[in-house]
Amino acid sequence: MVSDVSTQIALAPEISTWPDENAQLIGSRCADCSATTFPVQARCPKCSGGNTEEVLLPRRGTLIAWTTQGFPPGAPYKGPTGKDFVPFGVGLVQLEDVIRVEGRLTENDPAKLQFGMDVELTMIPFTTDEDGSEIVTFAFQPV
């Protein structure tokens, strides 16, 4: 995690507890059927109920599937493009026995990634805005 939080802004501040030192993703759980979602949803996608509450998701999980994003994604992607673009890993992570979350990986070398490896949530630099503030986003790093 980068140390100077005063010049950093979360890409999507509503989805995590960052700038907490051990930030967690924020999901929702249905009080009627116990389905968990990420990000937060007002209605349950499983039972359609509206009785959901915010929950903090586990920080650690297992890499279930992954790939490397070798070119800039399409809109609404707002990160680096052209010569500034660096390929990045994308993975599907099973967070304990709670939920599967798709997110960036801190590792993009296929030789260093393996199915079933343990990963942990972290925050990483994404881009810089027009005011010079560093925009950070969540990612999963091997542990």
Give the tags:
143 residues, mainly beta, 5-stranded mixed β-barrel, 42% strand, globular
Q: Can you give me a brief rundown of this structure?
A:
With 143 residues, this protein is an all-beta fold. The protein has no helices and nine strands.
Describe the protein's architecture and organization:
The protein is mainly β. It is built from no helices and nine strands. The protein has strands at 8-10, 26-30, 36-37, 52-56, 60-69, 88-95, 99-105, 118-128, 134-142. Strand 6 and strand 7 (99-105) form a beta hairpin.
Give the overall shape, derived from the CA principal axes. globular
Mean pLDDT: 94
Roughly what fraction of the amino acids lie in strands?
35-45%
> Biggest sheet: strands side by side, in what order?
5-6-7-9-8
Mind describing the biggest β-sheet? Answer: 5 strands, mixed, barrel
Structure classification: mainly beta
Helix/strand layout:
Elements: E1 8-10, E2 26-30, E3 36-37, E4 52-56, E5 60-69, E6 88-95, E7 99-105, E8 118-128, E9 134-142
Parallel strand pairs: 1-9, 7-9
Antiparallel strand pairs: 2-3, 2-4, 5-6, 5-8, 6-7, 8-9
